[in-house]
Fold each of these.
Amino acid sequence: MLNTIPEAVVWAIFLLPLSSFVIISLFARRWPQRSGYITIAAIGISFLFSLWVLDSVIQEDGANLGFPTHEWLTIGSLTLNLGLTVDGLSAIMLMVVTSVSLLVQIYSQGYMHGDPGYSRYFGFMSLFTAAMLGLVLAENLIMLFLFWELVGLCSYLLIGFWFERPAARAAATKAFVVTRLGDLGFLSAILLIWTQTGELDIPNIQEMAMTGAIGTVILTWLAAGVFAGAVGKSAQFPLHVWLPDAMEGPTPVSALIHAATMVAAGVYLVARFFPIFSASEEAINSVAVVGGITALIAASMGIVVTDIKRVLAYSTISQLGYMMLALGVGGFAAGIFHLFNHAFFKALLFLGAGSVNHATHTFDMRRMGGLRHFMPWTFVTFVIASLSLAGIFPLSGFWSKDEILSAAWEDQRLLFWVALVVVFMTALYMGRAIFLTFGGEYRGGEAPPGEQAGHEAQPHESPPVMVLPLVVLAVAAVVTGFLNLHHGVTDLLEGWLPELALERATEIEFHFGLATLSMIFGLAGFIVAWAIYGARLLSADRLRQAFGPVHRLLVNKYYMDWLYEDQLVRRVVVRTVAGGLDLFDRYVVDGAVNTTAWLTQFSASRLRLVQSGQLQLYAAAIFVGVVLIVAGILIVNP
Amino acid sequence: MDELGSVDRLGPELILLAFAGIIVLTDLVVQRRWLVVGGSLLAVAGSLIWAGTLVARDMRGSAFDGLLVVDNFSLFFAFLFAGIAAVVILASIDYSERFSRYQAEYYALILVSAAGMMLLAATVDLIAIFIVLELTGISLYILVAFLKDMRSSEAGLKYLLLGALSTAVTLYGMALLFGLSGSTSLDDIGNVVAAANDDTRAAVVMAMVFLVAGLGFKMAVVPFQMWVPDVYEGAPTPITAYLSVGSKAAGFAVVMRIFFEALGDRSISSDWSNMFAAVAAISMTVGNVVAITQTNIKRMLGYSSIAQAGYLVVGLAAISAAEGEFSLGASGVIFFLAAYAFTNLGAFIAIIAISNRINSDEIGDYAGMIRRAPLLALGLTLCLVSLTGIPPTAGFIAKVYIFNAAVQSDLVWLVIVGVLNSVVSAYYYLRVVLQMFLEAPASEERVSAGPSLGLAMAIASGGILFIGILPFLLLEVSETAARTFGS
């Protein structure tokens, strides 16, 4: 056991990656190789410090370490503070972010090798990690919001990293705009709480909420605004549409976004405000319902897509819905524990998909197949992660999923059944992905850029620098579930919760029956997948015809992109608003411009007649000014 | 003994003036550029050291029979103007090759005008104020015309004629105050104004309006700003930078001195608070709206400086927000001036470095500059971001501070105008950034700044970030300076 961590070291956790970003963008352009090393070193040290934080927090049983708040700026009555929140929740989040980010950076050295933007990539990755760490550590709303926006900005830069591709640009813009809608709600919530209480420090707001110093109506609106922000960032229904498109970025970026940074931010935010949600029955129930809907529809879409990264994307949305559902039914620790486990196996799945892409140059599962022979390491780790995701005993996903199911069982029976169906669907789409990618015969892949089509060469295993992170993550995906066998993680996570909020948190017991039930559903999913895609007992085409309308609905993503982009944006916004602006531009602006041009020409032609006439005009302005001011004063104050 | 003490208190200015003379005389004998530049930098350093000594040995007090005062306010500006002069000198080294024959005169005039600006913040007597106004003005008129080409000469002439006019207006206002009080000392005038009855009040108001009109020329606020675009475009670029921060800050310093000390009485201050509020709203709006259509970056920054003057005047309007022993508005103006000095100097340094190489001030020619001059483009971006008022830069804190002062003086409408204007300004500031980052460069030739410009840019960028991230030091200093005037 180490000594309690000093405050400066905690600051260093997010300042290190931040300085790595600064150093890379200023100096490392010419030596791209070094940017990778700088990033890995910075995040590696942050990871070690995060372990120290975890150690200190464990000694305090998860309670807030209570670092002093520093006054940053006082202007009259407005005071902005800088402070750190270090408790069980943030310690776990720090672990997730730094460890996943570290492994992703190591892997990226192989994946991004030779990319012309190598240095820029690592610079943005450092900033992305720093922003997420800052978000987790922030003690007041202004700081939190700043890092929140910074996370959004970095995701924009990284999704659009290959900005020469139109699809990447479009995806980046879509992600930015859609999440911004949610942020609007979050910002309104911040303004609301500040005007109502004059308080911006989160612990103080929570105390006020617990003691009843803030009215229930205000609390509900506050929670609604915060949740709106979380819905955008964590890709919850109905703002989930940006996440599947965000696949246009480099695959390690997706791994980071899906496992540890961007989307985890929304879940973290709801967890951080759990005391406030728990004080408003309406708010916490809507979290549960939105989470349930998201989990269900995202899983169903995951069954039909053919792009391996998109399968994983829908799976992330679905799992995030699961976490929200957990928080909504009072399973506070269950939700965050699932986030923790999910981070490792989801990062592993993405890195595995990246490794597959490295070998086959495609993400289309219809062109893969048989890769288990060529890429044994990728295959084994990918299967472990999939089983963990589907919640198969004894992998990590089983434990946290089981806690969520128990919490739902205690609180909202209907949502429990929804969650159970999702278990089946999860196993089905992951089984399908495994059989299509690694089973059967190799279907050719795609030619690497610069070579001729019909690339027949054998795919090969990725270099060790990419395989190593896969193996480490696979070990994590196996063991992290056992950490909570004796409720150690739960106690740690709930250590900072106030008494009243703790009452709302559902007590979770291990139900043997529930565990068996969910196992049956999970295995059933895999068996169906095997029957269709492995053994081909059932024809996929036949099924597609049989379920024609359903299949069409799923392939078209419940027509939500159509609704948003074609109807809402093109019809409503473009036709009416832009049409009006066009008229305004044509008649008012152009009219004004033409008039000005004519006036300028006219006055120029006059002015040429009187030499230095302009100067007289300038001088006249001074006198007109004097006269106007005197007149003004006489009118206002005769 | 007292006389010696007076001379001691004048030290920072005297050093500058003495070196100016020495430089010109030496140049008659040996013409070496490094001597001239080194001498002027030495002068500034000496001036800074002397001002530091005045602080360290607590030599605050009045000098020369109450013509001059050394207090926290004047010391703040002594440091500010010395710093500005140093950066302008650094920024001129490469540029001044264009007029190689008159190097010594150029740098000597910068030193003289800097001494004048320092004195503007320190004089407390109308006669003395008038003389140092002229000292500053005349050296600047010459500097504006220094290129001696068509545009520069035209700019110099315009500046001179309108400057003369504004001086006359100022003098008229001063004469009215003198006629009312029979004294030229700001203290005495303040007492008389405080005792003004309804008969004399009209005369005080008239004096106030004339002073604003005359000094508004220096601050470059609407409607006394007409000279700005022409002069900014025609003047040598380092001198444009100098005008936009130095001359403007000096204008604000002398306005604060006169208005807080001579016209600070409640009966009259509400009048000028309203007047400044109106001037602020108009200046912000005119400056920002016209800046949108500019294609020349120097003219754009000219209009932008009018808008920035508008934000500063918000602080003058917000006098009733008192925080303990000082007015939040006054400390806001002081803080804003320092933040703005770093920011605008930085922007101009980048422009000097880039224009020197590409020979153009057109915004369109800045396309793709991030690839041709990454550090300069990043620096310019930082400055533009700070001018827009986006964190974590000095400009953000300065705007928050001044707008907060206005809110606490019940000028919410003015803050709304100011915030809307900031949004408008983002359009034309960030358009330059977009141009530099996203457009394809016109040529692949690299643009690099020499060591002196690089150093100046580093100072400016460092200052912007330092004030933006750790503002307390400067906040403390500006609040101390503002305490000079009470609340």
Amino acid sequence: MPHHTVFEAKIEHLQILDENGKLDKKLAKDTLSDDQVVHLYEQMRICRELDEIAFKLQRSGRMGTYPQNKGQEANAVGSALAMVKGNDWIVPSYRENAALFMHGLPMHYVIQYWMGDERGSQFPEELNMTPLSVPIGTHMLHATGIAWAMKNRKEADRAVITYFGDGATSEGDFHNAMNFASVMQVPTIFYCQNNSWAISVPREQQMNSRTVAQKALAYDMPTIQVDGNDIFAVYKATMDARKRAIEGGGPSFIEGVTYRLGDHTTADDARRYRDQAEVDAWLDKDPLIRTRKYMEDQGVWDDKKQEELETRAQRIVKEVVDAAINVTAPDKADFFNDMYAELPEDLKLQRDTMRTSSIGRNPTQIGLNAQVTEAH
Amino acid sequence: MAQQTLVGAINQALDQMLESDPDVILLGEDVGLNGGVFRVTDGLQAKHGKDRVVDTPLDESGIMGTSIGLAIAGMKAVPEIQFDGFLGPAYDQLVNHAARMRTRTRSAVTVPMTVRVPVGGGIHAPELHSDSPEAIYTHSPGVKVVMPVTPYDAKGLLISAIKDPDPVMFFEPKRVYRSFKEEVPEEMYEIPIGEAKVVNEGDDLTVVTWGAPVFQCLQAMDNLPEDVSIELIDLRSIYPFDMDTIAQSVQKTGRCVIVHEAPLTAGMGAEIAARIMEECFLYLKAPVQRVAGFDTIMPYYKLELEYLPEAPRIQKGIEECLAY
């Protein structure tokens, strides 16, 4: 056979809960119970509250640049529920806050971080999370490395999930991470939140691939595209990927098709580059709306519960913001202390004097006529 | 004690660290079955297994990035970047992640890894195989940088580096890999990062250098008149570096020549010269001199000895500084 097909592939799309809140019962089998749906809905709603308040904090000058998660919450909560809290690792970007909260991160960390305080990235170690990763598309390699360590240590019941956007898949490190994970067959789940926009560049200008999911085919990696605003589909795809991972099946790829309802960050104004009609169409697909409809149809949710949840969300977020605002300011030389496990002498001198100019810093080098000024 | 080359001493240190610490993992291009292109890791995969001495895909950023992940998960990653010139793709991972992880998480997440890289010129290598990048990484807070040149120092510093809780760039002067042998103890020992070594004591002038030029400096010193007394310091650690040893020496001699292969401008010599101004100003009898690589692209090998600080150029620098 001189000319024959050596590789064929297809990309499947999974949607279980449609935008009208209608569930495909067959596909939903063995996925989420009503209690779990209510739990995920509450997590999404609280996270949305945090997002709105964070936006206001930035606008009123009490917080720096902040990237809203609005519209993408189903990706975070559905996948986080499928991962095992305190056992698996999460290697995040910065648009999956709810996943971190569901795995035990106190919410005030994220606010403290975006308020410019790196202590907000000092996550409790037992949570197994790396800090939010600001450079795009570079952290997935760490997820591959962490999973590789699990494989080396024969920790068969553990896996890693890493999140990133559609723009990140243009970066070389994305492909490096995918290739390494595939070659080493490590338990990493690559979760792409395809939110259609990388700041101002739309997905179709980011890549000429019809799906993001197909990029995994190059690495012979199981891959699927899901409706990222459908908690059932996200949960099921992540459960399947995790099961494969812990059974020695190696890495998997999930493309969650979603939409960034807000600006890229508070420093961005998306009206400059995208049509309101497009945003309006996606507002109708909001994961909160369809999940609420579904719960109401199931008879497990009503206006009273919604009102209670909103009150609770406001209270929780107020407490979180208060905790972040009231945190004691760091010592002025705090940024020196964690440069190394043990600070080199030079750095100690810089820290203790808060100066780099030498005269007056080192008493043995004071010239005869030098004016010695106090460290400020 | 056996005589060892630089290659042999590094191999022994890696072997002993693999033996003594199950968390140590070696990874890189061709480091396993082939034992590395310089055979530095020869025999280690056969002895310790494919899971601990790993042939990776040809991807420096991937090697660095996955090493960071391995280290975050508690392993002690010892990646090899095959040549100095191939560090470029790994730079982002190293500087934007490995170097920053401890400080940005206030020590909750740390990256204990040792990045081994053969560096420097003088072996008639192809393009991009002869660079001296130590200043680049010294200018990247959060990493440590060492460049031992003798087999004894290399073994002790490599063991220290792998045990260090922070990322260490371990630069190996490839020109010396097999050109010099000395006695290296069989047992494990550590040389603290940050301590220079006085190779030769003297009173008239201080020469500060590191890497392969240590041997060029010794050659230059041999050609000086017998009554000239030179103090030769091998810095060994580039960051943190041992300014105390340099300052004590220069306060004694009043004259200093700094020698390095890397380009002159903004090289490590500039930093040392500035620090000498700060700490030895009143003792100086002559301006500090630098004999370094030129501010050019490292030339292909027909002209590499014109670029490198070879003995005649070093000798001239010393003589001019002495005559000032």
